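Changelog-linked ticket: guanosine-5'-triphosphate example.
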Amino acid sequence: MSFFKKLRDKMFRSSDRISEELDALVEADAPAVAAPTPAAAETAAAKPGILGRLLGQSVETSRRVLDDAMLERLEEVLIEADMGVDCALRVTANIAEGRMGKRVSTAELKEALATEIARIMTPVARPLPLYPSRPQVVLVVGVNGSGKTTTIGKLASQFKAAGKSVVIAAGDTFRAAAVEQLQVWGQRAGVPVLTAPEGSDPASLAFDAMTKAQADGADLLMIDTAGRLQNRADLMEELSKIVRVIRKKDPDAPHNTILVLDATTGQNAINQVEIFRKLADVSGLVMTKLDGTAKGGILVALADKFGLPIHAIGVGEQIDDLAPFDPEDFARALVGLEA
Ligand SMILES: Nc1nc2c(ncn2[C@@H]2O[C@H](COP(=O)(O)OP(=O)(O)OP(=O)(O)O)[C@@H](O)[C@H]2O)c(=O)[nH]1
C-alpha cells in the first residue's frame, strides 16, 4: 500500500471531519425540504445542496456562492481542526482571494484548502539532515508518552535497513518501562541499546554511549531522554548536562535535537514546543499519533507558528508507520482528497 493511501486511511478522523464539514458548508444554504416545489427546484438548480441531491445532483456538483458567512464558517472549521486562529484566518483570506462572490464546489474548496496548507507546510518539510561526521548524534526530547521511544525504534530500524550502523542510549533512566521498550525495539532492529541502572545519571550513560558509538564507528547515536515536565529546572539541567558531556567528545554534537509531539494533544503541542525550545536547542519535530486524532490540523498551526523543520510523522505503532513528511500528501489527506 502506498504511504499516501495509508496516510489517507489512517488520518481518517481528521480528514473525515474536515471533509464532512466542507461538504456541509457548501450545502448549507440549500433549503432542506423533502418535497420540492417548482420554485424550490429552480433554486436547487442554481444552488444544488441537499435538495439538489434529492433531484439527482451529486455532492460533487453542489456549489455555493463564496460570501462572508461561508468564509466565517470555513474559519471555524479550520479552528475546530486545531489549525489555530491566526493560521485559519490567513488561510481563509487566501482562499477568498479571487473567489469572493463566485460559486465554488466542495471539490474546488478542498483543492484550494489543500493548496494553502501545502504552501505553509512545504518550507518545513525536511528529512532528518545527516551530516558527514560520525557518529551523528540525535537527541530525542518530548513529554512522557509523546512517542519518543517508538520514534527512536522506528528511526533506528529504518536507518539500519538503509545500511547505517546505529547505537541507542536509553537515557530515560528513571523509567524502567521506557528502557525495556527500547530494548525490544533494539532487538527487533538489531541495534545495540545502552542502558544504565535505574535512577543513574543519564549524562554518564550518554558519555558511555558516545564512546561506544565512536569506537564502533557507528553512523548514528540516538539518545532517548526523560520527559518529566513537572520539574522543568531539573529536566533542563539534565538535558544540558547530556549536551555538555557529549560535546567533550564532539563539539558539534548533538547534530539534531528532535522534539517528539503527540498529535492527540492538539493545541497543547504549541505549549510543548515553546517549553522545549527553552529547555533544549530543538532543531526539528516529529509528530506521532496522527492516526488516532481529529486534531491533525495542529501540524499546520505548528508549521505556521514556528517554522521548525518537520522530519517525519507517525501514523501507527509499526516500524513502517513512520514516514518522511510530505507536505502535499499530508495536505490532501487532511482535507480528504485523493492523491
Ligand atoms: N497510534 C499510534 N500510537 C503511537 C504512535 N507513536 C507511538 N505510539 C504509542 O504511544 C505510546 C507511547 O509511546 P512511547 O514511545 O512509549 O512514548 P515515550 O515518549 O517514549 O513515553 P515514555 O516512555 O513514557 O517516556 C505507546 O503505546 C506507543 O505504541 C503513533 O504514531 N500512532
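Closing comment: Example verified and attached. The mean pLDDT is 86. Residues 3-124 form one domain.
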